Every structure is written in structure tokens, then in C-alpha cells.
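Recall from the previous lesson that a structure prediction takes nothing but the amino acid sequence as input. Here we apply that procedure to Unsaturated chondroitin disaccharide hydrolase from Paenibacillus methanolicus. The sequence below is the only information supplied.
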Amino acid sequence: MWQEAIEAALDTLRGNIRNHPGLFPHITEGQKYEWGGNDDWIEGFYTGMMWLGYEYGGDPFLKAAAEEQLANYRHRLDHHIVLDHHDIGFLYSLSAVAQWRVTGSEEARQLALAAADKLLLRYRPNYGALQAWGKEGDPENGGRIIIDCLMNVPLLYWAHEQTGDRTYYDIALKHVRKSLRFLVRGDGSSYHTFYFDQETGGAIRGGTHQGYQDGSTWTRGQSWGVYGFALSYRYTGDAAYLDASKRLAKYFIAHLPEDHVAYWDFDVAVEAGTPRDSSASAITACGILELLELLPAEDPDRAELADALQAMMASLVENYSTRSIPGAEGLLRHGSYHVRGDRAPDDYMIWGDYYYLEALVRMERGIKGYW
Ligand code: GLY
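The prediction returns the following C-alpha cells.
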């Protein structure tokens, strides 16, 4: 089943590249993506899918398409195009780091290091973490961290490995420590965001941006935590992060509905028409794959995690994928970006597509993402 799902996904990807040369998929409603420039937080997912596809099948068309985009990412970094946010990690891990990992390109490596330097500039010593959104001092966002950032710090760990400069590692670690202390709750659930006083660094309160309400557990935030803490364990060896990832994963699994694909927030009342977020399940599947590689063989939770992974991925392939929908441009239906915001739920999400493909090629061939 995995192989067939991968082939269908790669056919869709190749069709998108042919039909929309030079463009990137943006969030949409319906069967088609909107296509535009490299000016959101999400473009890296598209490029990352090309690298996964190339590693899987060796198709030179996918490699060339990914390589062609590097100049665009360089231009974006040099001109600081919509980069006042921490998602520099998502963008450049899946484009520049990916290209360096797959081809050894020095040009890609230099770009990834420059991106890591830009991400470092978001560190705020007053509260000891990376500011998620906006410019320094921004009244609304200046003191805010969000759990999603756990997937951005691997760019800093990677830069430390490449250069030996401890600054990258120390700042990544400071941020992840803060995230563990203030975003993860005792029952394994999580806050989406946490606010600190910008001057004194004092802790103010947890809250949400995309979840149901302050204090609820936004499903996708939980999934960023599952994968993000596992990756921090991979880079640091600190068992606290392995434990955090596992606790978040167990909470996620324990709160899944019958078809193993999560609703958009774990605290929202479920009724007819409550939106799912298939992308959260795809991200969590990748996090569980990472966990299964890192946990000791005798860990008592391995079987539960492995069973959940199989059930989640089988349901995504059978019930949520577009493999039998001719002309579909996305891979996974029923993602939810910002249900209470101005984005309609139930759309294709390019990050859902990316993590779905990452999980499939890792299960089938052991090919990992580029974090
Ligand atoms: N990182 C933004 C989101 O998950 O919607």
C-alpha cells in the first residue's frame, strides 16, 4: 500500500511542477492549489517533496526542479522577503539543507548557513528564546514563543555541526528548554504559544493563536512538539526531550477518534462537520518514526507507538489521500490551517502533503527528511 501511495503522490507532484513552472503552491480551497511566489512560510515543503521524490526514485526531473529553486531562496534571503518570522527554519531546512544533504552542494550549504545566521537574530536574551513572529519590540508578538518553532531549531543544530560555532547550539538549546518548561503541560498536552515580558523576561501566560481557545491543545501544535522534541533529542542527547516527545505522542494517540486522524483541536466539541486536521496526523506520524528510531529497544511504549503509526498512515492513505481523485493538486484532503481565522478548514495543506510523503518514504525505504 505504501508503494502505491508514494507513486500516486509523485505523479501528482510531477504534474504540479509541469503545470506551474516557477511557482509555489499556496493555501487554497477545493481541488487546486493557488500558485504564487516564494513569499509565505510554506514554500520549503514543496521543494522538500521534490528532494524526497528524487531520493526515492532517482527521477532527474525532480532533482532539476528542486535545484532550480535554490536561486529563488537565495534572492529571498538576500532581500529579506517576508522573513520577519522564525519559519526561516522550515524554509531553508527543506530547500538549502536538503540540497546539501542530497548533493553536497557548497552553494546550498552556504545559503543554509546564512539562513541560520538570520534565524539567530530572532533570539531575545531578555526571555531566553526565539521570537516567533514580527519584529523585535512588536507590542503583540514581541514576547511570544510558539511550539511550531521546535521544527525551526534543527537549522541551528545543523549549523553548529557544520561550523563548530557553539552560538547556534546554545541558542537552540535555550529556546528548547524554555519551550519544554512553558509549553508542555503535566498531562502531556501543550500550549500553542506562551508570552513573556519583553523587558524583564518574566513568564506571563500560555495561550493559543490557531487553537480553539487559550488553554486548549491545538492538534497541529501538539504534532510540532512530538517531532520537534524528538529532533532536539537527536541533536543533544538530552533524555528530557525524548521523554517530552513520547509524552506528547501518547497524548495525541490517546485522543484520536475512531479513524485515527485528529480533529483540529483536542478540546473542541466534536459534532457533525467538525473539521479534521489531516496534516497534524501526518506530522505526528513522522515524529513517531523518529521516536521509534531513537527509543531504546526495551522501551515499554514502542508497540503502542508502532501500532498507532500503522493505523494513522493506513487511514491517511485510504480515507484522506487523493490517490484516486484525478486532477487533484494536493495529496491529503481535510487539513485545517486556522479554523477560527480567515482560512476555511478542510483544504489541502502543502505541509500536510510534505509530511505525508516523508512518512511514506521513511516507512518504505528509510529515507528521512532533512531536519
Ligand atoms: N506553523 C504554522 C502552522 O502550523 O500553521
